[in-house]
Amino acid sequence: MLNFLPGPVIGGISLALYVLNTLFWCGILFFLALLKLAGPSEKWRNLCNMLLNTVANCWISCNNANMALTKKITWDVRGIENLDPKEWYLVLSNHQSWVDILVLQKVFHRKVPFLKFFLKKELIWVPVLGLAWWALEFPFMKRYTKEYLDRHPQHKGKDLEITRRACERFKKLPISVMNFVEGTRFTPHKHRKQGSPYMNLLRPKAGGVAFVLSAMGRQLHLILNVTILYPCGVKSFWQFICAKTNEVVVRVEALPITGDLIGDYAGDPEFRDRFQEWLNAVWLEKDLAIEEFSRERRKAA
Asked: Residues with Cβ < 8 Å from 54, sequence gap 6 or more?
């Protein structure tokens, strides 16, 4: 434990360890990805994908060890007791910081299959990591504004087509499909601009979730509804690795996948309305739970 050192020193050590760990495992990832591309059969590609996921889990194990070495964090996690790394899951979460990804990877490590995120297309250009995400078959999404789609209607539905193709690949090995449902990180400015009806959350985007359920619903085991809280305030990645976060709270609620959650979101207006109503209700419960937690903490302070 290095938490006795000054914050910037801890941050420098932690960042160096993250970089070295990433470079080491990404070298292996890239080699396996090339072998997969050269492979003659689907069986060969599935074997390579299994090895790629194993390497990615080793990468996360080392990142978690880095976190334990350089930070003293109290983890308050509930709801992960009966999960199975051999099942398929859809993971939905609120989103406040890039730190959320490290939190989710730590909390679910070897509890569920490797988490795969839907990423903005621009992130493929992130040095080293962009190629690693590509090698691991993370789906890259091109997000269009409503104004852009009004001017270029031919691009409507392209994001759902990318989701469909990704889901077909996800059926071959147990996987956890991760979706930050709000589509972006929460900030007070975005909250005001959106006119969000929630106190602590942005509006959830239902289309991607509905399409994953439509494509994979009968294969998915459960929906994991995750709420991440930082009682001492949301920190940036740099603040986090400088040990400015001393407590993380995570609540996981397992939701069943019932038949009424599977349907034609794009083509059936009635189903679309029902699905949006269901997701909005889930988000309202999450918002009230965050508010209740904050209220209890203020009373205890």
From this structure: none
